[in-house]
């Protein structure tokens, strides 16, 4: 059943107070709720409307209205709701439901992960706990009591502050928590388990002391320091940059092993996938450290952007997610290298969100309709949503943006609001009109921005002719022009920025400016130029568009070497590599030999020699565009050609630059004590990028060096990089030895074993599918653990182009079988796994047929979940 934004109506009733008591047992749980309900007086209604509560997979044991037990017949229950007729405008409802958390494999609602009870209620999981008005605009004060066996579950947690605790007979105990802030049910959380606590404290700007706690299973005690440090930095940063202070006296994080997503911002009690909390240099890579920092910050920032001000309905999801991703990205940029962070995010967006926006599931940042909301926790809502907020930040300026967010938080504190309310606050605080800008929220698809330059030597004027368009997406054939902030500069023949003065402006604009492209076609003319400039466009990726400008390869070489803007230097390097690789795909298809463009080699050579550049930047620039990105850019992707071209180019680069790479690698490959500092991470990044190149056609010395790094590394980043290099090498013996040794050493560490699975699943050498199938039988693999599914099956289907897209369709068949199995166990994970098959239009007709056949096979399945049904049916439409 499709739900539409246009059908939104306020609820008929509010719930002022919610009192919950959970009795947890091994084979069931009882949930007693007492709700103080009140008619919504703002909604004109003649008679008292029936009360319809959401509820799924519940066994209803009792119902009482104002302390009067109701008999069957006084209320109606179906698979999705409980309805009854209130007799007054204000009343109390008491319910008892029975659920079976131990059998909850969907990991939504109350479930068991290992030995602990935990919850995941966003978006609509609370209705699997008890009957409720499970919608974000119903905000209520919660008091929660948890009762469980004391020996097995010594720690009992819920939202807010602990207010009472005690013992019951038969070894059971209880704790009561009270959350003073009204919240929607999706922010409810409960944890019961045998957990250890890592504790610290934070003094807020106004001098309040906050008790900070991270709860983990005992064996993970030593892996929490980085998350705790990240939390304290996030709290300080939100005070300094947004003026947001924490509001409860206690803030808790709990790590669980079985979790559908990254983490969840439940009020005062964040629940995390252990992969986003635990980090120790022995077990986690530098990338994992950065991810922990970012996710801890993200969930913490939700306390304001999401919890204090929440969403009116799920169509507004990007109100909290887009804004919070923007906030965590800026936090990470402030804590680490700003340019590198931006490069990582843009790389991810272009390879993945652009593909989503060009496929059958394309939807606006604020969708108009959905069947299953879980399917809309997407790259578009999150990542493109963050780009939309970033553009608003650009258009308001940092100060104006802060004025706008201050107004937003002040105006809407304690409310459930819309994306329009957010934009309105920015408009009102700045006296701006964003009505056209708001098309970014309602129109799907990635806009094209085609720019041409025109130089008039006689007048010293240079014009940028801008043309924008946006391809049709499902349900949207025509698009109106967007507001595209185009950050740019003009460079002279030395690479210096030239002063910018637009003919249409009275004042000059300095050396860099943001042009607002608002029309389908628009011309910007600069004057007073002494020579023909080369434009540096879309600096910092100032808008999520596909930019084209008729640069020659020599222009790109020039920009890659001279653009004063670090991001655009990287971009020029990428664009040059893309251009070269696309050229080579054509050459391969024409049956001619593949030769690397000398200019790319020379750019790389100069990068390797440039010791003034941040090594992390050099590493980013030496990284060829991914196969996934080349697929996204292609009209019809030639799987074999893309893989062959990328591998050949890597080899050409490795051979042509062997001595330069070796020299730089030797400088970096010195034994040093482990450090988590940014500079040390940057050195590891470049060193290991070079190791990857140097292991191509490596001799015995290099192989020995790689094995040595694998064995002797004092951190997981180096160890894993060596493992990746070995697994992708032809040295069968060394490879098998390393894999065996790694599994032996780390078998007790599930997150490290995830890496072990992924390294093998993404290896592009022949036989990938057979290896993945064999790994499914490995004792460390478990289809019920989402991290394992992502590490093995997800990594194979998304990051192993030639393996997954095997010409005989066996990769597709394998994935469809896993989707069918998971459909019964965990529909959200099944649905997410379907993504690679939805991209079938990108491939040749034989592969299209094979992919569609698997989609149709899934579609015909009896008992198909709404999650999988929505994605598959839209892909076949
Ligand atoms: N609000 C969470 C976050 O982005 C995501 C949780 C969504 N979970 C889900 N199963 N849909 O931080
Ligand atoms: Zn979020």
UniProtKB/TrEMBL annotation:
Domain Peptidase M1 alanyl aminopeptidase Ig-like fold: 445-549
Keywords associated with the record: Aminopeptidase, Hydrolase, Metal-binding, Metalloprotease, Protease, Zinc
Protein name: Aminopeptidase N
Presence of keyword DNA repair: no
Domain Aminopeptidase N-like N-terminal, residue spans: 46-187
EC code(s) of this entry: 3.4.11.2
Listed GO biological process terms: proteolysis
Domain Peptidase M1 membrane alanine aminopeptidase: 227-440
Segments passing through the bilayer: none
Record domain Peptidase M1 alanyl aminopeptidase C-terminal: where: 554-877
Required cofactor names: Zn(2+)
InterPro entries for this protein: Aminopeptidase_N-like_N, Aminopeptidase_N-like_N_sf, PepN_Ig-like_sf, Peptidase_M1, Peptidase_M1_dom, Peptidase_M1_pepN, Peptidase_M1_pepN_C, Peptidase_M1_pepN_C_sf
């Amino acid at each position: 059943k499709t739900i539409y934004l246009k059908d939104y109506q306020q609820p008929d009733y509010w719930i002022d107070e919610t009192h919950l008591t959970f009795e947890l047992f091994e084979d069931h749980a009882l949930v007693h709720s007492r709700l103080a309900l009140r008619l919504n007086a703002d909604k004109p209604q003649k008679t008292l409307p029936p009360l319809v509560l959401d509820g799924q997979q519940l066994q209803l044991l009792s119902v009482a209205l104002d302390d009067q037990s109701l008999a069957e017949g006084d209320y109606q229950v179906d698979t999705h709701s409980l309805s009854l007729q209130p007799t007054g405008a204000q009343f109390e409802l008491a319910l008892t439901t029975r659920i079976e958390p131990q059998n909850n494999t969907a990991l939504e609602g109350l479930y068991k992960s290992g030995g602990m009870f935990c919850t995941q209620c966003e978006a609509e999981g609370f209705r699997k706990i008890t009957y409720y008005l499970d919608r974000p605009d119903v905000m209520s004060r919660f008091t929660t009591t948890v009762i469980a066996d004391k020996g097995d579950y010594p720690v009992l947690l819920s939202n807010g502050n602990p207010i009472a605790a005690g013992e019951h007979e038969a070894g059971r105990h209880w704790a009561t928590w009270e959350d003073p802030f009204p919240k929607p049910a999706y922010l409810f959380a409960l944890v019961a388990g045998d957990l250890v606590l890592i504790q610290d404290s934070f003094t807020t700007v106004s001098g309040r002391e906050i008790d900070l706690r991270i709860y983990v299973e005992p064996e993970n005690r030593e892996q929490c320091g980085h998350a705790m440090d990240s939390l304290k930095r996030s709290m300080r940063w939100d005070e300094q940059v947004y003026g947001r202070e924490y509001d409860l006296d206690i803030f808790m994080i709990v790590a669980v092993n079985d979790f559908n997503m990254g983490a969840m911002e439940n009020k005062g009690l964040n629940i995390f996938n252990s992969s986003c909390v635990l980090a120790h240099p022995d077990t986690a890579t530098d990338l994992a450290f950065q991810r922990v920092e970012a996710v801890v910050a993200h969930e913490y920032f939700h306390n304001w952007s999401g919890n204090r001000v929440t969403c009116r309905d799920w169509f507004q999801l990007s109100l909290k997610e887009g804004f919070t991703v923007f906030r965590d990205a800026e936090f990470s940029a402030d804590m680490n290298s700003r340019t590198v962070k931006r490069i990582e995010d843009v790389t991810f967006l272009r390879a993945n969100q652009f593909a989503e926006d060009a496929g059958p599931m394309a939807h606006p940042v604020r969708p108009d309709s959905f069947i299953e909301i879980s399917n809309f926790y997407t790259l578009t809502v999150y990542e493109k949503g963050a780009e939309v907020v970033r553009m608003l930040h650009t258009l308001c300026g940092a100060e104006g943006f802060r004025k706008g967010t201050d107004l937003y938080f002040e105006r809407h504190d304690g409310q459930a609001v819309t994306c329009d309310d957010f934009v309105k606050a920015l408009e009102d605080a700045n006296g701006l009109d964003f009505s056209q800008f708001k098309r970014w929220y309602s129109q799907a698809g990635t806009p094209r921005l085609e720019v041409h330059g025109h130089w008039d030597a006689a007048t010293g004027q240079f014009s940028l002719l801008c043309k924008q368009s946006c391809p049709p997406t499902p349900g949207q054939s025509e698009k109106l022009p967007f507001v595209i902030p185009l950050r740019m500069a003009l460079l002279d023949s030395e690479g210096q920025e030239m002063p910018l003065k637009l003919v249409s402006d009275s004042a000059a604009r300095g050396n860099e400016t943001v042009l607002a492209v608002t029309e389908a076609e628009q011309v910007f003319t600069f004057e007073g130029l002494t020579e023909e400039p080369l434009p540096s466009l879309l600096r910092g990726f100032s808008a999520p568009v596909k930019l084209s400008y008729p640069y020659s390869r020599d222009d790109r070489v020039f920009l890659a070497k001279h653009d004063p803007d670090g991001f655009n230097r990287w971009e020029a390097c990428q664009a040059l590599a893309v251009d070269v690789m696309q050229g080579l795909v054509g050459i391969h298809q024409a049956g001619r030999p593949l030769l690397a463009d000398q200019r790319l080699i020379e750019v790389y050579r100069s990068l390797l020699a440039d010791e003034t550049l941040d090594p992390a930047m050099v590493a980013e620039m030496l990284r060829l565009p991914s196969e996934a990105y080349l697929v996204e850019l292609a009209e019809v992707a030639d799987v074999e050609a893309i893989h062959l071209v990328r591998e050949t180019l890597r080899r050409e680069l490795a051979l042509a630059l062997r001595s330069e790479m070796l020299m730089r690698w030797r400088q970096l490959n010195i034994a040093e004590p482990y450090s988590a500092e940014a500079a040390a991470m940057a050195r590891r990044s470049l060193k290991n990028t070079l190791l990857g190149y140097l292991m191509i056609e490596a001799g015995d010395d290099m192989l020995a060096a790689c094995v040595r790094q694998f064995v002797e590394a004092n951190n997981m980043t180096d160890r894993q990089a060596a493992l990746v290099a070995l697994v992708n090498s032809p040295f069968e013996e060394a490879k098998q030895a390393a894999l065996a040794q790694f599994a032996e050493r780390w078998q007790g560490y599930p997150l490290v074993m995830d890496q072990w699975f992924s390294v093998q699943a993404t290896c592009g050498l022949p036989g990938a599918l057979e290896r993945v199938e064999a790994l499914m039988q490995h004792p460390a693999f478990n289809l019920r653990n989402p991290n394992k599914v992502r590490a093995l099956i997800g990594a194979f289907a998304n990051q192993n182009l030639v393996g997954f897209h095997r010409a005989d369709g066996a990769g597709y068949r394998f994935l469809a079988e896993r989707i069918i199995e998971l459909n019964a166990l965990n529909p959200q994970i099944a649905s997410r796994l379907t993504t690679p098959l939805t991209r079938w239009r990108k491939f040749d007709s034989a592969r299209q047929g094979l992919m569609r056949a698997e989609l149709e096979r899934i579609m015909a399945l009896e008992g198909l979940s709404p999650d999988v049904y929505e994605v598959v049916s839209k892909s076949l439409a």
